[in-house]
Specification:
The structure is a single chain. This protein is mainly beta and 311 residues long. The protein has a single domain, classed as Porin, CATH 2.40.160. 9% of the residues lie in helices and 53% in strands.
Length: 311
């Protein structure tokens, strides 16, 4: 009888210990067909088959450990994009996320390679989820792709807890991790009810850069959600400008458009998109973007038709 009680106690203790820690496997699978035309602007040439048009296919591991007293240790590892035609992994194994940090009543920290504040703060204002067809990105003025990437290596990051819809953060990449040029980012976001607003800024990462910043806001009217923003990119050549957009549910469909005008670079991009929800995790999509401006190719466009599954 004593041995049985001891065994049950041991199992209970182990269960309590395991309950304090968790690791989650998650990911996105995107398979599509589409076409792109080339030219002077950032739409590469060729046709894609079984590529991931809307968003890169990848998987990741995220975990947390309860350290007691409201303190938690967290980590995230996320692969680079996986080619759906061949199953090959592009770039570094954990090329999208590779960080650890602590969270608690003070907020949260991340140390390592993680998403930029331009991504964390302003991806929510891209109504099509940062698709390849993103009008802001194609026009050369998306905060998500400042400095050519939505990630930052060797980043030290702090973000406050959400306080009545408001949160803010600061991040630093030290000079020793960035060719002797330190860089600082700040962001602040507010979201409550139908309204969301955000601001983000990032100091130059090379001597030739300038401080980049963006402000944006969205409002959900119920029948449709509208967004507008203004961006100053990290280089004079990439320019600055404004964008607008709207998305509306039509039964199981969501349809929308986004328009970005880069005044300094004299270019504009118009994006049309639609998706059909087969379930909460699986949807069909159709994305299209057209680029116009001084020196633009006659047919500067890009489109993709695909299926997107999350897990």
């Amino acid at each position: 009888m004593k041995k049985t009680l001891l065994a049950l106690s041991a199992v209970a203790c182990c269960g309590a210990a395991f309950a304090q820690s968790s690791v989650t496997i998650y990911g996105v699978i995107d398979v599509s067909v589409g076409s792109k035309t080339g030219g002077k602007f950032a739409i590469s040439g060729g046709k894609d088959l079984n590529a991931s048009y809307h968003t890169p296919t990848r998987f990741g591991l995220r975990g947390t450990e309860d350290l007691g007293g409201g303190l938690k240790a967290n980590f995230n590892l996320e692969t680079n994009g996986i080619g759906m035609a061949t199953g090959s992994l592009g770039g570094n194994m954990w090329g999208r996320e590779a960080w650890t940090g602590l969270s608690g009543n003070f907020g949260s920290t991340r140390f390592g390679r993680t998403s930029s504040f331009g991504t964390q703060g302003h991806a929510r204002f891209d109504l099509n989820g940062i698709s390849t067809s993103s009008a802001m990105d194609v026009a050369g003025m998306s905060p998500v792709t400042w400095y050519g990437s939505s990630r930052r290596d060797a980043q030290l990051q702090y973000v406050t807890n959400n306080m009545g819809g408001f949160d803010a953060g600061v991040s630093v990449v030290l000079a020793g991790n960035n060719a002797n040029q330190s860089s600082t980012s700040i962001r602040a976001n507010y979201g409550a009810g139908p309204l969301a607003v955000g601001i983000v800024a990032e100091t130059k990462r090379t001597a030739a850069n300038r401080t980049a910043y963006a402000v944006a806001g969205s409002y959900d009217f119920g029948v449709a959600k509208a967004v507008a923003g203004y961006v100053v990119s990290e280089t004079v050549a990439k320019g600055k400008g404004a964008y607008i957009g709207a998305v509306a549910p039509v039964g199981p469909f969501k349809v929308g458009f986004q328009y970005a005008r880069n005044t300094a670079a004299d270019r504009n991009a118009t994006e049309l998109f639609a998706n059909y929800a087969l379930s909460k995790r699986t949807s069909l999509y159709a994305d299209y973007v057209k680029l116009n401006g001084s020196g633009a190719p006659v047919k500067a466009y890009s489109y993709g038709l695909g299926i997107l599954h999350t897990f």
